[in-house]
Amino acid sequence: MKTMSFVVWKENNEFVAQCLNIDVSSHGNSFDEAVKNLKEAVELYFEDEPNCVMPEIESIYLGKETINV
Question: pTM of the predicted model, to two decimals?
Fold first, then answer.
């Protein structure tokens, strides 16, 4: 068993879930569906790799900044 760290945000009418341990993402119509779909996507990513290496995330920081564009 591994611990998956992720972030979820709402984009238009969908929720997008991004795994922070590896570059895998998914989406869904609700927060819970997006997380469920992400978990399935990460498990499929490692399906053929029995000794998977997934870096552990110690801390997560989230921020927003205003930029000039």
Answer: 0.86
Record the tokens describing residue 8, joined without a space.
């979820």
pLDDT tens-place values along the chain, 69 residues long? 889 999 999 999 999 999 999 999 999 999 999 999 999 999 999 988 878 888 999 999 999 999 999
Count of all residues that appear for the chain in the document:
69
The domains of the chain, with CATH numbers, are: 1-69 (3.30.160.250)
How many helices (H) and strands (E) the chain has is answered by 1, 3
Separation of alpha carbons 22 and 45, rounded Å? 10
Cα separation of 65 and 63, whole Å? 7
Q: Residue 67 CA to chain centroid, in angstroms?
A: 25
